[in-house]
Specification:
Elements: E1 5-8, E2 11-14, E3 39-41, E4 45-46, E5 50-55, H1 61-74, E6 89-93, H2 98-111, H3 116-119, E7 123-127, E8 136-139, E9 142-145, H4 147-159, E10 164-168, E11 174-175, H5 181-198, E12 201-207, H6 226-230, E13 233-239, H7 242-248, E14 256-265, E15 274-282, E16 288-294, H8 306-316, E17 321-322, H9 332-340, H10 348-361, E18 364-370, E19 376-382
Parallel strand pairs: 5-12, 5-13, 6-7, 6-10, 8-11, 10-12
Antiparallel strand pairs: 1-2, 3-4, 8-9, 13-14, 14-15, 15-16, 17-19, 18-19
Helix pairs in contact: 1-2, 7-10, 8-9
InterPro entries: P-loop_NTPase
Pfam family, one: AAA_25
Protein name: Regulatory protein RepA
Length: 389
């Protein structure tokens, strides 16, 4: 074999940078003999591949990946996502100090009922404040990879048999022009090579660019697009809109609500949007720490019954409460809120939608009333009475 070749199960392969290449004849294989993909976390993390999580600042991506790491090392589905655990995870946060990571992990364990024995020796945590993890830097217009660091990283991944490496954030793992597709591709492909050679999944946490009110997507990730192109899966975090929170009746409760959606998936179909929230956990030593938990948006009529509709119908029967929410104390929503033990203005959007559904169903009906000023305005009356039988 030529000294510029290496071996693989399919024959010789070229060493990068040698200028040597050869054509490999395809030999059909019985599909039953092809090893299945090794998914490790839902349809996002896959062994020997790179995945990316993209989010605007302050949404909760670091807190989310901490819970994800705890899911993987314990084998529990804390956020409702299937995982192949218990697995070994190396969480490498390149921004926070160790004491902050300790707070976040401790709060997450406390909130989700995780004991030290549930983790065992499977979780590794490091910080960029103590160790640099910079794969390459730029000298003039060239990318210079830190081969010594890469070999050390490779040896650690193999020695500890790491299944998942989480790097947060990606931008701190290099010092090259992040707008240059070629240079970012060089760094991204090095992460891919590490995943391949070490048999692990690599999760790179990345920021979006300034969105200026537009929706967050993987394509809106900061810098060159070659990072997303190199990933087999990319998911995006998006803060829930104020209107959606108002409709759910949780606006202003102090929690951060966000969605997660896989919007770039080469090896599986894109996923449905999932929703989460960050709640405050008291560490009982003076600190409050945000922890991510699964959150399901309540249905419009969740917790309500036919008896509640009857209460509303009885409350408005014989009166002419106004339909428009702009009419202050005359608005029928005030009566609905009182009858259903809802609060204003927190539940205003939900109440308006409930009223409109009842109008469409015929339980309430809208008629026109002539006002003292000669104008007319819609008011609500009882339509078809509800029956509990």
């Amino acid at each position: 074999m030529s000294p510029i070749q290496q071996s693989s199960p399919h024959g010789p392969i070229a060493v990068p940078g040698t200028g040597w290449v050869t054509a490999t004849q395809f030999v059909p294989i019985d599909p039953r003999d092809i090893p299945p993909r090794q998914w490790l976390y839902g349809r996002h993390l896959i062994r020997k591949n790179v995945s990316v999580t993209v989010a605007p600042g302050g949404v909760g991506k670091s807190s989310l990946t901490i819970i994800q790491a705890l899911e993987l090392v314990t084998g529990r589905e804390i956020l409702g996502q299937w995982n192949a655990g218990p697995l070994k995870v190396w969480l490498f946060n390149l921004e926070d100090e160790r004491s902050e990571l300790d707070r976040r992990i401790a709060a997450s364990m406390k909130h989700h009922g995780i004991e030290a024995s549930d983790i065992g020796d499977r979780l590794f945590v490091d910080t960029g404040r103590e160790q640099q993890l910079m794969l390459g830097h730029q000298v003039r217009d060239e990318v210079q990879l830190d081969r010594a660091l890469i070999e050390r990283l490779k040896s650690q991944l193999k020695e500890h048999r790491i299944d998942v490496l989480i790097v947060d954030p990606f931008v701190s793992s290099h010092r090259v022009n992040e707008m240059d597709n070629g240079k970012i591709d060089c760094i991204a492909k090095e992460w891919v090579r590490l995943a391949e050679e070490c048999g692990c999944a690599v999760e790179l946490v990345h920021h979006t660019r300034k969105l200026n009110g537009t929706e967050a997507t993987s394509d809106a990730s900061r810098g060159a697009s070659s990072l997303i192109s190199a990933a087999r899966s990319s998911r995006v975090l998006q803060r829930l809109a104020d209107d959606e929170l108002s409709e759910a009746g949780v606006a202003g409760d102090g929690c951060t609500y966000f969605s997660v959606k896989r919007d770039k998936a080469n090896l599986a179909a894109s996923g449905e949007k999932e929703t989460f929230r960050t709640v405050s956990v008291d560490l009982e030593q003076g600190d409050q720490v945000g922890v991510v938990e699964l959150w399901k948006k309540p249905g419009l009529f969740e917790g309500l019954s036919v008896r509640d509709l009857l209460k509303v119908q009885n409350a408005i029967d014989g009166h002419e409460y106004r339909y428009s929410a702009q009419t202050g104390n005359d608005w029928v929503g005030n009566i609905v809120a009182h009858a259903l033990s809802l609060s204003l203005p927190k539940d205003k959007r939900r109440i308006k939608k409930i009223i409109d559904v009842w109008i469409r169903s015929g339980a309430l009906k809208k008629t026109m009333k002539k006002l003292d000023n000669g104008k007319t305005s819609p008011v609500l009356q009882v339509g078809e009475w509800a029956s509990e039988t």
